[in-house]
């Protein structure tokens, strides 16, 4: 008894769905043409239809049904009921996920190519007598199999077929409608693009990110910044469990004193995806190269009908291919984020939470390159935020009103990189338990800063003189520990040059060694008149 004939791999229903999408909505044709070639289709009529679509695009012509039928007629493919078949395709369900459907067709085509290559290789081994000829044919066939596999779009493999010049021409409509910035989520802070938030461990960056999401969901001003696009937020956590994230969210909502309705809104629109302990990555290493996994596309497919306004991955290191690749790894994360942003029509911000390096943490740096690792993540992100804890010994001083209180911590939120907004001042955050307060640093000129320093030193010296404390230059420098000695020294020299600080003779009983004088302030500047 002969073995049953096995059919070649094919995805006929997927082929119909793809062509139905192109016929019903001609705007999908360029995307389909980027993913599939006519020879990828199993059914001959489907090859002819796809070939006609491709020819129309190369010529820069429309791909509507009537033009398509004219093209098929011109090349002799309208016989044998093609018109009726096109009508049936119009009634066939269109593909809703074109990349995934095209991927199924590509994989079936790759499998057929492998079977064909294996058949030809077996035939060559049977009839050829020259081993060198067999070896050459084997190498050629293996190359064709490799190409078929590379072009099968198995999840992460991108299309590398360059679009036609006609497709890349800029239209007048594009020129008129092009926007300089993507959709704004939070004014001067978050936009529909790639972002990062870097902070040392223990700074509270995860809790800060949770607080920010609550404000975005409820459209409450965030650090005094307007929320332009409220919406639901996705928090993908690989570090803290879902339970911990939800517990922190509860405490933050309690501290914000939300109404029952507001609490329910946050609960409905704050999505937590817990992947702790799982190998869920946006990129992976394959033969020394960093490539995308299916995760970015899976997120797009899952939420395409209702995209989130903010997707956060915490921490970034858990979603990469490993720090051994450094900048390649970071660039891969940027590419994955951009893929999600593009999949959601640039209406979603994709943000990575990262740790700072040891040196930037110790130094309290606020520049865009504070995150651990290389520079590619900061270079590729369009928005970089840095959160650093503040200590009283730091050279920076909080703005008015931002004072230490028992049990409170103060942090500085910098925005060193904002591609879609002008440079912004520092935001000072005072956190008491789960409550967040903000203070914005006022920008002052060099002259204003100098004048304030002069006035501060002058007032201090006048107060000291009234209390009977007589300073020379050295003792005055050390009496102001909150100011840099070099700044105090320069200020004293400037004040003396302007006559606002003067030297007066010490009383005879206070003169010691070479010290004969002390610093004083003229009466008109708050000093005491010399008696």
UniProtKB/TrEMBL annotation:
Listed GO biological process terms: DNA replication, synthesis of primer
Database matches in Pfam families: AAA_25, DnaB
GO molecular function, one term: DNA binding
GO terms for cellular component: cytosol; primosome complex
UniProt cross-references to Gene3D superfamilies, sorted A to Z: DNAb Helicase, Chain A, P-loop containing nucleotide triphosphate hydrolases
Residue ranges annotated for the DNA helicase DnaB-like N-terminal domain, each copy included: 8-102
Coiled-coil blocks: none
Keyword Transmembrane helix belongs to the record: no
Keywords: DNA replication, DNA-binding, Primosome
InterPro entries linked to this entry: DNA_heli_DnaB-like_N_sf, DNA_helicase_DnaB-like_N, DNA_helicase_N/primase_C, P-loop_NTPase
Protein name: AAA family ATPase
């Amino acid at each position: 008894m002969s073995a049953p004939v096995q059919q070649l791999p094919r995805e006929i229903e997927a082929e119909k769905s793809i062509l139905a999408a192109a016929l019903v909505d001609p705007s999908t044709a360029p995307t389909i043409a980027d993913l599939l070639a006519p020879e990828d289709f199993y059914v001959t009529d489907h090859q002819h239809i796809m070939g006609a679509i491709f020819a129309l695009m190369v010529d820069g012509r429309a791909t509507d049904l009537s033009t398509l039928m004219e093209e098929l007629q011109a090349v002799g493919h309208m016989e044998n009921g093609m018109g009726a078949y096109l009508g049936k395709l119009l009634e066939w369900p269109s593909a809703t996920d074109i990349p995934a459907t095209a991927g199924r067709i590509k994989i079936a085509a790759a499998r057929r190519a492998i079977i064909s290559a294996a058949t030809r290789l077996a035939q060559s081994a049977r009839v050829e007598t020259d081993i060198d000829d067999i070896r050459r044919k084997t190498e050629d066939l293996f190359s064709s199999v490799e190409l078929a596999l590379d072009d099968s779009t198995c999840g992460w493999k991108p299309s590398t077929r360059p679009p036609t010049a006609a497709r890349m021409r800029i239209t007048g409509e594009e020129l008129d409608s092009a926007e300089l910035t993507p959709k704004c989520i939070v004014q001067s802070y978050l936009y529909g693009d790639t972002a990062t938030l870097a902070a040392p461990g223990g700074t509270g960056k995860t809790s800060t990110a949770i607080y920010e999401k609550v404000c975005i969901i409820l459209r409450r001003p965030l650090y005094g910044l307007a929320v332009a696009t409220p919406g639901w937020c996705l928090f993908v956590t690989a570090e803290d469990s879902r339970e911990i994230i939800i517990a922190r969210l509860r405490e933050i909502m309690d501290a914000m004193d939300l109404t029952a309705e507001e609490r329910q809104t946050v609960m409905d629109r704050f999505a937590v995806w817990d992947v702790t302990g799982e190998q869920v990555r946006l990129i992976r290493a394959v033969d020394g190269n960093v490539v995308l996994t299916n995760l970015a596309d899976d997120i797009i497919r899952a939420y395409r009908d209702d995209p989130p306004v903010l997707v956060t991955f915490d921490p970034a290191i858990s979603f990469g291919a490993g720090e051994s690749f450094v900048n390649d790894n970071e660039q891969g994360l940027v590419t994955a984020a951009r893929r999600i942003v593009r999949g959601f029509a640039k209406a979603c911000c994709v943000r990575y939470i990262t740790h700072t390096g040891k040196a930037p943490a110790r130094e309290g740096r606020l520049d865009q390159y504070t995150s651990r690792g290389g520079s590619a993540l900061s270079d590729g992100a369009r928005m970089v935020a840095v959160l650093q804890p503040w200590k009283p010994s730091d050279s920076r001083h909080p703005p008015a009103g931002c004072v230490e209180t028992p049990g409170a911590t103060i942090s500085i939120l910098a925005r060193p990189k904002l591609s879609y907004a002008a440079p912004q001042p520092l935001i000072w955050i005072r956190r008491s338990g789960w409550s967040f307060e903000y203070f914005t640093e006022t920008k002052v000129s060099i002259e204003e800063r100098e004048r304030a320093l002069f006035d501060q030193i002058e007032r201090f010296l006048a107060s000291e003189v009234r209390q009977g404390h007589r300073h020379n230059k050295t003792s005055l420098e050390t009496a102001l520990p909150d100011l840099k000695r070099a700044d105090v020294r320069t200020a004293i020299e400037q004040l003396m040059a302007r006559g606002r600080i003067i030297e007066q003779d010490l009383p005879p009983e206070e003169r010691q060694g070479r010290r004969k004088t002390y610093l004083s302030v003229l009466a008109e500047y708050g000093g005491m008149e010399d008696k």
